[in-house]
From TrEMBL:
Keyword Hydrolase tagged: no
Pfam families linked to this entry: NDUF_B6
Biological processes annotated in GO: mitochondrial electron transport, NADH to ubiquinone
Originating organism: Plakobranchus ocellatus
GO terms under cellular component: mitochondrion
InterPro entries: NADH_DH_b-subcmplx_su6
Annotated keywords: Membrane, Transmembrane, Transmembrane helix
Protein name per Swiss-Prot or TrEMBL: Hypotheticial protein
Membrane-spanning ranges: 113-135
Length: 145
């Protein structure tokens, strides 16, 4: 006797229930708890309705807004942006021959600009030399004999 196997959803929920769960999942930003607002008097309507904000609420909101300003941004941390192996191989000669020596004699910004532009100039020079060589010494290659 052949047993008929039915497709049974392991999570017994309707499509609308799943959609609602996914909506909450996105709203909670993948957390089990809803986002928490620490802003004093977050809604404009609340701030303006009735008598408005008290002096204490106004001072608290002013301090909260001031605390939202982050100082010294953006911070560049190279370890947080690792390069893949191909980019490391490609960048190695320029880092070794231009980047490190330039850091000893110039400022960090100037050395970074030099590290960025000098290899590009070498590539443009090499490509133009290659095109010149091909045009000079391979003029009759396209002609059929």
């Amino acid at each position: 006797m052949a047993s008929s196997v039915q497709n049974i959803d392991p999570v017994m929920e309707k499509p609308w229930q799943r959609a609602k769960r996914m909506e909450l999942y996105d709203f909670y930003r993948k957390s089990a708890y809803p986002p928490m607002s620490i802003e004093p008097v977050p809604y404009e309507r609340t701030r303006l309705a009735g008598e408005g904000m008290t002096v204490e609420q106004r001072a608290l909101r002013k301090q909260w807004l001031k605390d939202q300003i982050l100082h010294h941004e953006p911070r560049h941390v190279p370890e947080l942006q690792p390069l893949n192996i191909f980019r490391r191989i490609y960048r190695f000669p320029a880092d070794l021959l231009i980047g490190k020596p330039a850091m000893m004699f110039f400022s960090k910004e100037t050395a970074a600009i030099m590290r960025y532009t000098i290899p590009k100039l070498f590539m443009v020079f090499g490509a133009s030399y290659f095109v010149w060589y091909q045009l000079k010494y391979h003029q009759n290659v396209s002609r059929l004999h």
